[in-house]
Amino acid sequence: MSHEPSPEHYSYSAYADPEMARTFDNRRFSGPIGELIAKSQARVLANMAGRINEREMLDVGTGTGRAAFILALGGARVTAVDASEEMLAIARQRAAEQSLRIKFQRGDAHALDFADRSFDAVVSFRVLMHTPQWKRCVAELCRVAERLVIVDYPSATSVALFESLTRRATHALGAKTEPYRVFTHASITEAFDRNGFRIRSVHRQFVLPIAFHKALGSRRFTLWSENLLDHAGLLKPFGSPVTLVAERCAS
Length: 251
Known about the structure:
This protein is an alpha/beta fold and 251 residues long.
């Protein structure tokens, strides 16, 4: 029997901060590079999810609701859960402003309060990198999905590895930071395989660090440099973050 995640873990405490909830989207998606990331995420999600009109979709770790909004605008019937009431409050407010009908509720990715195969597809962004027990979360995502699971993660073969190690070290010394983990493609594939899912397609975003692109703030440079690195064959082995769609295997 696995231990229950501690509410003191940063993935709970950091996102329970009202200031974090209020500024979350602005810190991630503001500026030319933030807008580029947001548009890319929306495009990749739409491509991986396929036809979603009138389908039951679940967004796990919805945060301020960005992925849930994309799904709802595509005509899906969306349920969105998050462990943070502060983040959900922002999501509910923004959904109301856009007249989007989304069912928001508090929930934990380690123990989803839904029956097996309740949703056609399940989406979970920026969760596995932070959650205390990521394999348990993968099992839950697969359990409640009838057909597809879409997740993202920072790659262990990218420069994200060095930022992750730095954050973990400074967190251990008492700094207030988010010491996220990175993943190998093999470990992710094995976790999904154990739960009866196979990886269907993968999208890798950047070779250079997102922080570097944001510091420069040049959309033109980002598109030019990343296209150059892709053509040089560096995106596939070193690109990050990675977004993938896994499909339930035929029984």
